[in-house]
Amino acid sequence: MLTPALSNQGSYRGRFAPSPSGPLHFGSLVAALGSFLAAKSQQGKWLVRIEDIDTPRVVQGADSDILHTLEAYGLHWDETVVYQSQRHSIYQDVQNHLQSQGLVYACQCTRKEIKQRGGFYDNHCRALNLPFANNALRLRQNFPVDSFTDQIQGQVHIPRNIAWEDYIIKRRDGLYAYQLVVVLDDIDQHITHVVRGADLLEPTARQLGLFKQLKHTAPRYAHLPLVVTEPGLKLSKQNHAPAIDKQNPIPATLAALRFLGLLPPKDLNSADIEDILKWAIASFSLQKISKVAEKPLSDAY
Ligand code: GLU
Ligand code: ZN
């Protein structure tokens, strides 16, 4: 079962949670550095969790490549790296617990059917009592969250269909869904602050609801502006973002620091990575970060 809340609630614990579906690119460096600096500037701990729950998307060796890249960039983590793939029985326990409270039901709607019914899941299978085997499992949404305060984005409003949806916690293929496991992992690792990309802004509402459902205090959230290659187009593995250079971490680090609202002085260009990070920890503030990227990547780096 989940471990009880720690008594030293006050101490900052942040994390970086990459999916090992490829090497780190500039967008993931911004998330790594943003979460690292936020933690270290509060004398906090910074943990790394490999989010390898979605096994079909996992690329062999990407986890160790990511960890080596973090080290080359001077981003040294505290505590042991956690792998979601080794936590199946914990997820299973929580599923059983939710199930015993009548909160889980099976759904056999296909993507196509949902599209035909208006593009979002309308709790269609709630009362159908379908068998669990070979179906997706959904959680009854008893704690809808339709707005929250983000430390960078300010007041965030969530569309009703997302806030109220009975979302999938276990997929038809038997894999646990990100929405469920991210919360269970953040609880188990006693995460107090989450700093990550703004592509996860809407899922945050569900995560906040799940913390309530499980009677745990949620972390505070800060969503960084997304790195875009051109206005509106997110830099991602899907659009072939290049890997950052493990041999030469300084140019990408300085560009990422500027992206995070810092103005590294010229003499840092010839400093080593550890000194650059020391300067960045002392200079970092969430207040300096803008809500959206001011420039596309090509102008920044
Ligand atoms: N694994 C997710 C990703 O790579 C991040 C999840 C999170 O930070 O909550 O996009
Ligand atoms: Zn259904």
From TrEMBL:
It comes from the Bacteria. Signal peptide: none annotated. GO terms for biological process: glutamyl-tRNA aminoacylation; tRNA modification. A motif ('KMSKS' region) lies at residues 234-238. One of its GO terms (cellular component) is cytosol. L-glutamate binds at R15, F16, A17, P18, S19, E51, Y178, R196. InterPro entries: Glu-Q_tRNA(Asp)_Synthase, Glu/Gln-tRNA-synth, Glu/Gln-tRNA-synth_Ib_cat-dom, GluQ/Sye, Rossmann-like_a/b/a_fold. ATP binds at K237. Its EC number is 6.1.1.-. Binds 1 zinc ion per subunit. Its cofactor is Zn(2+). Residues 13-294 form the Glutamyl/glutaminyl-tRNA synthetase class Ib catalytic domain. Keywords: Aminoacyl-tRNA synthetase, ATP-binding, Ligase, Metal-binding, Nucleotide-binding, Protein biosynthesis, Zinc. A motif ('HIGH' region) lies at residues 18-28. Belongs to the class-I aminoacyl-tRNA synthetase family. GluQ subfamily. Catalyzes the tRNA-independent activation of glutamate in presence of ATP and the subsequent transfer of glutamate onto a tRNA(Asp). Glutamate is transferred on the 2-amino-5-(4,5-dihydroxy-2-cyclopenten-1-yl) moiety of the queuosine in the wobble position of the QUC anticodon. This is Glutamyl-Q tRNA(Asp) synthetase.
